[in-house]
Amino acid sequence: MRIVVTSIFVQDQEKALEFYSEKLGFVKKEDVPAGEFRWITLVSPDDQDGTELLLEPNVHPAAKEYQKKIFAEGIPATMFGVADIRKEYERLMEKGVTFTMEPTKMGEVTIAVFDDTCGNLIQIVQK
């Protein structure tokens, strides 16, 4: 068994697609109508057959409340691995990404946290 798709709640699918593709550099894999919304997934450019990230509309009241509360508590919705966190931090800063935590060493890993502009905090980690 392996993880094929994981999702993240977003306030606006189009805005999220733009942020995750243009700012973060993920590649759109699927974009098909799904009722009133779309089934939009992205993948890492380095692993286009790997795990897909689904941009899930947060239309359900429970999803909105969950997203709002973890954001308010400073809890990242998900984590992405990077090879060089300082380099990635600088690259994202140049693209206008707002960080709530700059790269910080925590034991064996270094982490940083940014705002995805779609209701989530995202953590990047270098092992």
From TrEMBL:
| Domain annotation VOC: ranges | 2-127
Its source organism is: Peribacillus asahii
What InterPro entries does the record tag this protein with? Glyas_Bleomycin-R_OHBP_Dase (IPR029068), Glyas_Fos-R_dOase_dom (IPR004360), VOC_core (IPR037523)
Which protein, by its recorded name, is this? VOC family protein
Instruction: Cite the Pfam families for this sequence.
Output: Glyoxalase
* Phylogenetic lineage: Bacteria, Bacillati, Bacillota, Bacilli, Bacillales
Q: Which domain of life is it from?
A: Bacteria
